[in-house]
């Protein structure tokens, strides 16, 4: 049973790697960013509530993402494992997840920290050109990452759940490092 959380700054390659690995393992790739972008596109109540936060590089309120993750993890395809990408993004969300996983008997998750230097992630994000990838919003997302998300590295290290992968290498190299890591 594989249950993985991907951690790392925006632009580290989390989305790509999480997607590839999930396909390889035949388990769902659950990206809160993607779910929110889809909801915004469809202008659902969730999307409408999330829009201004996402557009400015801020985190959307915990309740919104926590509800969506809880619902998603209860779906049938998530019972045989999952990869979470973009959640948790702050300590309050991690505490929520810990409690949720215990309640639904899905504990035993491992956390992959995919890291890369600032100049590498900024260059990648600028090249990607998503709507929330303007230079100003990127800078804000990095600040939010450092202040809110990076503390999760210690949080999960303390709980002996943390694995680390160097995101500053080619996509193929990262994929192969990941395969080795989760096989061990
Ligand atoms: P990236 O990792 O490239 O910055 P994501 O696709 O993971 O982007 O997320 C895009 C945006 O969605 C974030 O900037 C934030 O506004 C929102 N978001 C995604 N996940 C969360 C979360 N767990 N908590 C709060 N906001 C989130």
TrEMBL record:
Q: Name one GO molecular function term.
A: ATP binding
Under PANTHER family, the record lists: NUCLEOTIDE KINASE
Q: Gene3D superfamilies, from UniProt?
A: P-loop containing nucleotide triphosphate hydrolases
What is one GO biological process annotated to this record? AMP salvage
Q: Anything noted about its domains? A: Consists of three domains, a large central CORE domain and two small peripheral domains, NMPbind and LID, which undergo movements during catalysis. The LID domain closes over the site of phosphoryl transfer upon ATP binding. Assembling and dissambling the active center during each catalytic cycle provides an effective means to prevent ATP hydrolysis.
Q: Tell me the protein's name.
A: Adenylate kinase
Q: Which InterPro entries does the entry mention?
A: Adenyl_kin_sub (IPR006259), Adenylat/UMP-CMP_kin (IPR000850), Adenylat_kinase_CS (IPR033690), P-loop_NTPase (IPR027417)
Recorded catalytic reaction(s): these are: AMP + ATP = 2 ADP
Instruction: Summarize where ATP binds, as residue positions.
Output: 11-16, 128, 169
Spans annotated as NMP = 31-60
Location relative to the cell: Cytoplasm
Quaternary structure per UniProt?
Monomer.
- EC no. given is 2.7.4.3
- Functional note: Catalyzes the reversible transfer of the terminal phosphate group between ATP and AMP. Plays an important role in cellular energy homeostasis and in adenine nucleotide metabolism.
Among CDD domains, the record links this protein to: ADK (cd01428)
Cellular component GO terms, alphabetical: cytoplasm
Q: Does the keyword Hydrolase apply?
A: no
The family database entries (PROSITE patterns) matched by this protein are listed as: ADENYLATE_KINASE
């Amino acid at each position: 049973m594989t249950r993985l959380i991907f951690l790392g700054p925006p632009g580290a390659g989390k989305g790509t790697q999480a997607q590839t690995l999930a396909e390889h393992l035949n388990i769902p790739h659950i990206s809160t960013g993607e779910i929110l972008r889809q909801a915004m596109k469809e202008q659902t109540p969730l999307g409408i509530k999330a829009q201004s936060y996402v557009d400015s590089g801020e985190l959307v309120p915990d309740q919104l993402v926590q509800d969506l993750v809880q619902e998603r993890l209860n779906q049938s395809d998530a019972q045989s494992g999952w990869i979470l990408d973009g959640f948790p993004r702050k300590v309050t969300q991690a505490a929520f997840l810990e409690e949720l996983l215990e309640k639904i008997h899905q504990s035993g998750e491992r956390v992959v920290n995919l890291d890369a230097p600032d100049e590498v992630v900024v260059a990648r994000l600028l090249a990607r050109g998503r709507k929330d990838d303007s230079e100003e919003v990127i800078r804000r997302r990095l600040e939010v990452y450092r202040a809110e998300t990076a503390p999760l590295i210690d949080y999960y290290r303390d709980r002996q759940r943390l694995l680390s992968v160097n995101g500053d290498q080619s996509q193929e190299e990262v994929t192969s490092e990941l395969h080795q890591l989760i096989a061990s």
